[in-house]
Amino acid sequence: MWIGLDDTDSTFAGGCTTFAAYRIISHLTGRGYYVIGYPRLVRLNPNIPWKTRGNGALSFQIASDGEKEILIGLNNGEKIYGYQKIKEECDNPKKIFDLVSKILEKEARFDDENTNPGLVVTREKIDYELYKKAVKTIVSLDKVVSLLGKNNALYIGYKNKRGLIGAAASIAWSPINDRTYELITYRKEKKIGSKREVDDDSVKIMDKKIATTFDNYDYVNKHNRIKPNSPCPVLYGIRGDVAHDLIKAMKIVKSEDFQGWMIFESNQGTDEHLQRKEKIKDVSSFESVILKGTVWKEPFTIPGGHVIFKIKDGNNDTIDCAAYEPTKEFRSIIRGLCKGDVVEVYGGVREKPFTINLEKIKIIDVVKIVKKVENPVCEKCGKHMKSMGKEEGFRCVKCGAKTDESKAKYAIISRKPSPGFYEVPVCARRHLSKPLKRMVKEA
Ligand SMILES: [Zn+2]
Asked: Could you tell me the distance, in angstroms and rounded to a whole number, from the CA of residue 381 to the centre of ligand 1?
């Protein structure tokens, strides 16, 4: 049996969909249901205009009994175990639906007008195609509702019902191409909303010791990335490639006491939101793309510190690319680009102005730039000659002899950045963006 939920959180009042899932799972495991595998935190299209936060939906599979125990979490001192394999399916989806919707109604923040929770309970897994669409494009609620009908799913959408899209799409995800994990710790009730105590130095130690984790700490911007800033119940979240390494990582981090933790399997850090486009005219707003082109208009900085440049494709179409101010030192890489450089840009497409918001860039080829380093020397006087203006040649001030541009000394200047991959810093990284650290591993 699959359970999916989404959009129970609120932008101002706190709450967090992973916390609702944690509550539901803690409750179900105490009633003879077991999670199969890890619960899943599935990030969907980050460019959806009505989502201001992470756009993450939750899903998990449950059964009445299983084989091969795995530790998936801890709730007030009690370990929560799941199983790797199903031994006995659970029936009675209605009973589970009633139980879960009751907990959800207690956890969800209906007071926020932008919170539109959704819950799906289904025996049949939802087709993977729905996930693919929901992570890359915009999916309509009607489509999802008709799909849920075909699946004989039980579902409820609250308010504008948009949470149903994420709830269904989260169930549809399978880690067939890639996956990561995140261990999330939850604060004690009385601490929620107060300043988080998570020791930066211990996070740096953890970051260096546990090599399979990523995006823990931004050393340049001194930003402790595992600690969120919203008033939600999450104390911190550690991301990595190996689930059990995250438990070791948690033991290194020094922090305030917490009520428990849970490990989620996830599509975070996988780049699954990106689609390769051959032509600029195929690029649409609200998507995320990989696009190759030649720098056409050199980078310039606009008020606010954002850096913009233009690329051109083989059809002579052009598009703006932007490294916004929060991408910090990444902007100095971008400022080094010159007209003619061949690049591959990775990023989300903004509608107005129509711009690719850079997450990464692969600099494929940089043009040679030749610069005059010394003026010619007069053959008679042995003195440096003077330029008579751009492309006008040189003249000796003493004897009046003239010579042309080719007599000066030129050198090929060393270009920075050199070809290679560059990414925005940890502090500006999107949930779905694959860190270069993970890309190197694949190569
Ligand atoms: Zn001279």
From this structure: 4
The model carries a pTM of 0.92
**C-alpha 60 – ligand 1 centre gap (Å):** 85
Cβ contact 4:57 at 8 Å:
yes
CA angle 172, 173, 176 (to 5 degrees): 130
The CA 408 to ligand 1 mean position distance, Å, reads: 15
Helix (H) or strand (E) holding 168: helix 163-172
Q: How far is the CA of 386 from the centre of ligand 1 (A)?
A: 10
| Inter-helix orientation angle 17-29/93-107, to 10° | 130
Q: Are 158 and 118 in contact (CB under 8 A)?
A: yes
Angle ∠(433,169,136) on CA atoms, nearest 5: 40
**Interval between CA 377 and ligand 1 midpoint (Å):** 8
For 402-428, write each residue's pLDDT tens digit: 999 999 999 998 898 999 999 999 999
Neighbours of ion ligand 1 (CB under 5 A): 378, 380-381, 396, 398-399, 401
CA of 372 to the centre of ligand 1 (A): 20
d(CA 429, CA 415): 26
Backbone angle region of 131, left / alpha / beta, with phi > 0 → left and psi within -120 to 50 → alpha: alpha
Report the separation in Å between the CA atom of 153 and the middle of ligand 1, taken as the mean of its atom positions.
92
pLDDT one-digit tens code per residue, 182-218: 999 999 999 998 999 999 999 999 999 999 999 999 9
Q: C-alpha distances in angstroms, 210 versus 78, 202, 291, 334, 388?
A: 25, 12, 34, 31, 63
